[in-house]
Amino acid sequence: MATNKVDALLVGSGVMSTTLATLLKKLDSSLNILMVERLDQVAAESTDGWNNAGTGHAGYCELNYTPQSADGDVAIERALTINANYEISQQLWSSLVESGDLPSPDQFINSTPHISFVWGKENVEFLRKRYEKLKDHHLFADIEYSEDTRTLTEWMPLVMGERVDGEPVAATRVAYGADVDFGSLTRNMVASLEKQNGFDLRLGHEVTALKKNGGNNWHVTIKNRSTGKKEAITAGFVFLGAGGGALPLLQKSDIPESKGYGGFPVSGQWLVCQNEDVIKQHHAKVYGKAAIGAPPMSVPHLDTRIINGKPALLFGPYAGFTTQFLKAGSRLDLLKSVSANNLKPMIDVGLNNMDLTRYLISEVMQSHKDRVATLQQYLPSAKAEDWTLAHAGQRVQIIKKDEKGRGKLEFGTELVAAEDGTLAALLGASPGASVAAQAMIEVLERCFRMRMDGGWKSKLKALVPSYGESLVDNAHLLQDIRRHTLTTLGLQAVAGKETSGETHHQERQEQRRSFG
User: Fold this and answer.
1) Angle at Cα 514 formed by Cα 509 and Cα 516, nearest 5°?
2) Rg of the chain in Å (alpha carbons)
3) pLDDT above 60: residue 26
4) Known catalysed reaction(s) (predicted)?
């Protein structure tokens, strides 16, 4: 079996691996990169437009990012972090649009107001407190709040139609929120990578073995799923960005940092509107409050989507339980992931998350009538015959040991990296794709330290002007960067003037100089 040597092997062709490949080639075009994807097309699992919410998660509308404590206080720290990290993604996408590595922005991102909507006295009070805390921070300076039914009807006419008079309602809105077709974004980035020397994509291949050799390289065996033919790969660096498939591969690596990790798979479903007249009347992402025990991916929302260039209207997601780690995975995935070093944490999580268990059971048992009844809380005029059920992607939530050695369930994303920097894996779900740029920059910082110090940092700053600075702390920098990215990505025109493509380029050069 012949051996192929590469600088970096990236497992999975989703937005994470593709973002990392793009950054690596921008920082050093001479790198030899191999991307391996088990399916026969790019970005067909969690990254595909139909398999995720398509929300540019910035904390504008997602109420689970601003939890309320027992004493009524609203914590906004996580929303600030997610917002700043999302800005990093928009900076990278803007740079790639300007360099020609991405096409016209409307092929992957579209302006879609982000709205939080609640009803009932207690929920209205919560939203008001949330708004009061967020509006005073520069990251959320443009957030709007209203309890006025006429204003809310202007923002979301279908949601407000036929609603009971006198019921307390409130909403916040950020007009320049975005809908992102992460599948289209990723496929366009891969198309650009395939035009470059030193990048190879193997579709229909899977990793069957992963072992560190005597030096600093990994010996990896990949198999063609159609022919069964195997190939040996020697890689200086391995990234496991295979969504739910990353955990089993991380376990195969047997690095010390992988010990104790487990996964809890959750499936998702959408109600998809089939009535074109209804689709045309709604233009926003309207997020509500999650049910007790629900995972963050199950926060209900009524979404305007643009998927593969076509408008759509989705409501959900409705959660369910499955033992598969991937939509195209095996029912044995969960069982195979159990080992001696993660059995106790997984049992702990099972025993201590009964609210989640009850919630998932209730979701699985729902009928179409039940699902439509939930939809009607957000869209009172919804008719059952206008909506059909579609299956979304799989999400594998993180199970890990806490400081006491017991198991805990986490709903974010987490980077697990070998101490020597030769391997990294990304685990978890939301906010996921929206913060891919920041997540992959963390991979660079942890796994390519010497090269970052040797010149990559300045190159990275040209791609992401805020790199090395805090958008949470620096209001002036945020204002300049947001103004530029919103304009470049077509999410908001430059105030007070029309700007030509040539002027865009000139402004970008000036901003890069001012950002250092």
Assistant:
1) 95
2) 23
3) yes
4) (S)-malate + a quinone = a quinol + oxaloacetate
Residue pLDDT, tens place only, 443-466 = 999 999 999 999 999 999 999 999
What are all long-range contacts of 62-71, with beta carbons under 8 Å and residues at least 24 apart? 62/116, 62/287, 62/296, 62/299, 63/116, 63/118, 63/127, 63/130, 63/287, 63/288, 63/289, 63/290, 63/299, 64/290, 64/296, 64/299, 66/130, 66/133, 66/134, 68/126, 68/129
Cβ contact 424:415 at 8 Å: yes
Per-residue CA distances from 85 to 232, 302, 442, 449 (Å): 37, 24, 11, 21
Token pair for residue 147? 């309890």
Cβ neighbours for 63, distance < 8 A, ≥ 6 positions apart: 116, 118, 127, 130, 287, 288, 289, 290, 299
CA distances from 382 to 374, 376, 469 (A): 10, 6, 46
In order of their start, the domains of the chain are 3-446 (3.50.50.60)
**Which CA distances in Å does 464 have to 26, 96, 176, 187, 247?**
12, 10, 20, 21, 29
Looking at residue 141, what DSSP letter applies?
A: T
Residue 346: what residue type?
Answer: M
CA dist., res. 4 & res. 193, Å (int): 19
One-letter amino acid at 406 equals: R
CB 267, CB 320: distance < 8 Å = yes
* pLDDT for residue 356 is more than 60: yes
Could you write out the DSSP letters of every residue in 402-416?
A: -TTS-EEEE-SEEEE
pTM of the shown model: 0.89
DSSP conformation class of 385: G
Residues linked to residue 428 through DSSP beta bridges, in sequence order: 413
Q: Is the pLDDT of residue 498 over 50?
A: no
**How far apart are the C-alpha atoms of 249 and 228, rounded to whole Å?**
19
Q: How many angstroms separate the CA atoms of 356 and 354, rounded?
A: 5
Buried b (16+ CB within 10 A) or exposed e, 309-342: eebbbbbbbbbbbbebbbbebeeebbeebeeeeb
Say whether the peptide bond before residue 431 is cis (omega within 30 degrees of 0).
yes
36 has a pLDDT exceeding 80: yes
Q: Is residue 407 within 8 Å of residue 348, measured between CB atoms?
A: yes
Give tens-digit pLDDT for 172-205. Answer: 999 999 999 999 999 999 999 999 999 999 999 9
Nearest Cα neighbor of 63 from 146, 157, 127, 125 is 127
| Preceding omega of 103 cis (within 30 degrees of 0) | no
For the beta carbon of residue 415, count every other beta carbon within 10 angstroms: 17
501: confidence class by pLDDT, cuts 50, 70, 90:
very low
187 with 44: CB under 8 angstroms?
A: no
pLDDT at residue number 244: 84
